[in-house]
Design a protein that fits this description.
This protein is mainly alpha-helical and 254 residues long. It is built from eleven helices and three strands.
């Protein structure tokens, strides 16, 4: 499997694969590259609908040049817990951030959310976040305010009375419910417009259709979140290896 950075020719093949509707895994197979490499390449350069090989190549060259001008990280940085590969974790965090951004979240908010989600404790202080992300406390504060308004994080005080920002299992449920409430507000506003514009006018009819559609989406989202909430607290079942469950007769003899 080839290593190193993607070549311009490989990026052109990625662009052609995306245009043909191929999955990342298939593009990766054709290039003999890890699927994560293709995913990261596409998501950091516009996503599957906006990826362009020439722009992606120039952007990568620019990032490489900028990294060469940046001082190396402190070699005393502690190793990753659980024997994780630090570079693999860093690259995955970048992919996670880019995918969240593709869903519409601003970059700094996505970076903070990714940082919290990939932390074993699920909680960090403002100082922790500023240090890990190499950004100002003001940037962290603004990002947290946004994430909190969307139900993605919550605040708590630790034993030292420091404010910590937490992302836990229930936060995802709360975020879905916040989304449902936000959609419901759009429904209410659209129906107000029907009264203003007239239900028998083209504009009024359009708003009524919007309201009906989003009303269904809002109710479905809330109902699905309620029904699936238990999943957040259910431990995945561990299956026994096949060699431990096969080769045994009904009377227990091998």
């Amino acid at each position: 499997m080839p290593g190193g950075r993607l070549t311009q020719q490989e990026r052109q093949q990625i662009a052609l694969g995306l245009a043909d509707g191929l999955a990342y895994a298939e593009i990766a197979r054709r290039l003999d590259r890890p699927t994560s490499t293709i995913t990261r390449e596409v998501m950091r350069n516009g996503g599957p609908t906006s990826y362009r090989a020439d722009l992606a190549h120039r952007a990568t060259e620019h990032r490489a040049h900028r990294r060469r001008q940046t001082a190396p990280r402190d070699p005393r940085t502690p190793a990753q817990p659980h024997g994780r590969d630090a570079e693999a974790v860093r690259e995955y965090e970048e992919v996670f951030t880019t995918v969240v951004m593709a869903s519409g979240m601003p970059k700094m908010m996505a970076r903070v959310l990714a940082c919290l989600c990939l932390t074993d404790s699920g909680s960090l202080t403002a100082s922790d976040l500023a240090q890990r992300l190499q950004v100002s406390p003001a940037s962290v504060s603004k990002a947290i305010a946004f994430l909190e308004s969307q139900g993605f994080v919550r605040r708590e005080r630790d034993e030292r009375r420091r404010e910590r920002y937490v992302v836990d299992d229930d936060v995802w449920y709360q975020s879905m419910m916040a989304s449902a409430r936000s959609i419901a507000q759009v429904v209410e506003t659209a129906r107000q417009g029907v009264g203003v514009l007239g239900s028998h006018t083209p504009a009024g009819a359009r708003l009524e259709n919007i309201a009906r559609f989003l009303d269904f989406v809002s109710e479905s989202t809330a109902r699905a979140a309620e029904q699936a909430r238990d999943v957040l607290y259910t431990k995945p079942e561990r299956t026994e290896p096949e060699h431990l469950t096969s080769g045994t007769t009904s009377d227990g003899a091998a």
